[in-house]
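User: For documentation purposes, I need each entry recorded in a consistent format: the amino acid sequence on its own, followed directly by the corresponding structure tokens. There are two entries in this batch. Please keep commentary to a minimum and don't merge the entries.

Assistant: Recorded as requested. Entry 1:
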Amino acid sequence: NNNNHVGASSLGSVFRETNDWESVQVVQHAIKNGINYIDVAPWYGHGKAENVLGKSVLFTISQIHYGDDTW
């Protein structure tokens, strides 16, 4: 059980159009505040969520874990 996790579907504009820069800031804020597991999948915005997550964790990759549903 990991209480420090978040789903990343909203980063891929699944629910509404999102701004990549704002999404990057949200992810960085989450990481700084203890989120260390981010669930992402390639169908979240046809790869948009993965791209945003990649930009967000560029310099913090050692501090987080991510789940990718790719087989």
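Entry 2:
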Amino acid sequence: IVAKESPYQHMEELRGRERELRETLARLHMKRHARRLEKPSELHTAKKDLARVLTVLSEKRIATVRGRGAK
């Protein structure tokens, strides 16, 4: 996902999604360690989703810094 292609428009939405995914990951890790995780693929998917959100956040931060420096 490239920052301009992101379905999330605002940084606050991205940060909210990041928090949500981190909570989901924590819950899935606990389930895995308790041997109650029914679909191990959920853990993989949550990790990938979090990585995508963090990438977009990073790209937006870089674009903001570059925009300020160009003035």
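Summary note for entry 2:
Helices lie at 11-33, 40-69.
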